Every structure is written in C-alpha cells, then in structure tokens.
Amino acid sequence: MFEIRRYTPDKAEEWNRFVATSKNATFLLDRRYMDYHSDRFHDHSLMVYRRGKLYALLPANEADHVFCSHQGLTYGGLLMNEKATAAEVVTIFRLLNEQLAQEGFCKVLYKPTPWIYHRQPAEEDLYAIVEVCGARLTARSLSSAIGSHCRNPWYRIRECGARHAQQAGISIEKTSDFAPFWQILSDNLQERYELKPVHTLEEMQLLHSRFPENIVLMVAKDGGQTLGGTVLYVTDTLVHSQYIAASRQGKQAHVLDLLFQHVVGQSLQQHAWFDFGISTEEHGSYLNEQLIYQKEGFGGRGVCYDWYEWDLPSK
C-alpha cells in the first residue's frame, strides 16, 4: 500500500505543493528554503506514497550511516496532511525502519515540528517513534512563546524600558535593508560567543527575496540610525523571532522593549502564537538564564524543541 521513494530535484514542485497544505509543515520545509545550503548536506529526503498518491514527506540528510532529520533545519519530522491516520503512520515507520536498515543506516536522529507550528493536531509521529521505533529523547531545547488567548503581563522592567524608548523618540519600522542590522547581530555574536550568525547576510537576503511575506525584518531606529531589530519568520500559526540584536546604544535606549511591544502586539492580532526562540545552548544542556529572563519578561513561557534517536536493526 505504501511506497517510500528518495527525493530528487525533479520532484521539487510536487514536494512544495504538499508542504503548502501539510498540517505540520512551514515554509522552512519548502525546497526553495531547504536547498539554499544544499552543498553542505548529503540530502536523503524521502517521499511516502499511498496507492500512488503522495501521503507524507520526511526532510532528511545522511551523515556517517546516520539518517538525520535535516541538520540544516531547526525542526522537520514526518510531514503529513489531514488524511494521515495513526495506524497508517505506525505502518510508515515500520516500513521506514526496514528500508533504512537495508540501505545500511545504523541510527535515526529525529526532530519533530513543535506543536505550536501545527495547523491542526499532528503528533501521530511521536506516538509511532516511541511505540514502533523505541525512540529515546536525547536533547530538549526550551523556547518561550506567547499565546494570543492567554497573554501574561509584562515585567515592570520591560514596561519601563518600552516607555523610555518611546519617550526618546525611537521608531519601529519594517525594512528590507538587512545590512545595518546584520552588522549589529554579527558584532554581538562575535563579542559574546566568538560566533557568526547561522545565515550570512547574502543568504538571508536571498531567502527574503524568495519568501518576502514569510521573512520580515523589523528594526528600531533613532532618526536614520538602526539601533536594533529582529528577523521574524511568519508561518500560518505563529510569528517566530529568528534573530534578535541591539547595539550598545540600542541597549542603553531599551529599544528591544519598545520593538517587542509593537511586534508582539501586531503578531498576536493575526496569529495564535509568538515564539521568541530557544534560550538554551549545547543541545539544551545549558539554560541561558539572562536570555530567557528577558523573554519571560515579555510574557513568554516554555515550549520544548525535542530531538529523538533510535537504533536500526542490523541487516
């Protein structure tokens, strides 16, 4: 009844059509987003057909005999439509394990899409990987989200900061000029962690050009000078803050407090959730308490991003 086929580039249009209607996919799983860094990963994405019709997708790559939920993405897992049933998803994972073992894989690394991204309930895969695959939780990162139906009051320090920035004449604007913000972001990451942003400026500009409605840059300015900002990833169910940064002058002016007062308020008028992103490091083993305190000050509360693993039977 089911056939699992390897994805090939000539299937991109079919893949993208399914992503657009899947109950637990976002634009990050569109090949136009996934493939911007295709040279860094050995793609091994799979397409599941039921009686000749596309039934599910599994974005993935291979690395040292490990079958991985795509390592260039924060989340993925089995992408399903509203017709997917629990019994059939269980069957798919049985077939998947058999096929991967035959192909020489020894282990699976699985990163499901967090539930706040789901258009409708879509956790049949979480049941299947435990009951069929014996999956074990190996990493848990913690994000902070705000629901439009249950907003928490802000901490006083955040309210005072927003008021201070507003009185100082800070303006909040949407812009397509990523360069000034990217310099601030890059300087901050280098100074704090000796790291660079996951995306280069050129990559982010490319992705923005492909998804102008889904990738949005909001900045805080004093006159014409950018003092801080956030890159927002906009999906059907939520708005996710992909990058956040402020310059030293921006921090002194509390521009992020005013920025998120505007951004969160606008986002929750049209979306069920606002997600600030994770505040953990080293695959969740370290909690950045200062960072999550800031997000909790805006009303954010915990949502987990999980990783699972399981071993495949020997050939």
Short description:
This protein is α+β, with helices and mostly antiparallel strands. It has 10 helices and 17 strands.
Task: Name its key features.
single chain, 315 residues, alpha+beta, 11-stranded mixed sheet
The helicity comes to: 25-40%
Main sheet attributes: strand count, strand direction, barrel closure = 11 strands, mixed
Low-confidence parts, pLDDT < 50 over ≥5 residues?
Answer: none
Assembly category:
single chain
Describe this structure in words.
The relative contact order is 0.16. This protein starts with a strand and ends with a strand. The chain has an eleven-stranded mixed β-sheet. Strands 1-3-4-7 form a four-stranded antiparallel β-sheet, sandwiched between helices. A two-stranded antiparallel sheet has the order 15-16. It contains ten helices and 17 strands. By secondary structure, it is α+β, with helices and mostly antiparallel strands. Helix 3 (86-102) crosses helix 4 (124-131) and helix 5 (156-167) crosses helix 9. The protein is elongated, with a radius of gyration of 21 Å.
Topology:
Layout lengths: L1 E5 L5 H10 L9 H4 L7 E2 L2 E5 L2 E6 L1 E4 L2 E4 L9 E2 L5 H17 L4 E4 L13 H8 L4 E12 L8 H12 L3 E5 L3 H15 L7 H10 L4 E8 L2 E10 L3 E9 L1 H5 L2 H16 L2 E6 L1 E2 L4 E2 L1 H9 L3 E11 L4
Parallel strand pairs: 6-8, 13-14
Antiparallel strand pairs: 1-3, 2-5, 3-4, 4-7, 5-6, 8-17, 9-14, 9-17, 10-11, 11-12, 12-13, 15-16
Helix pairs in contact: 3-4, 5-9
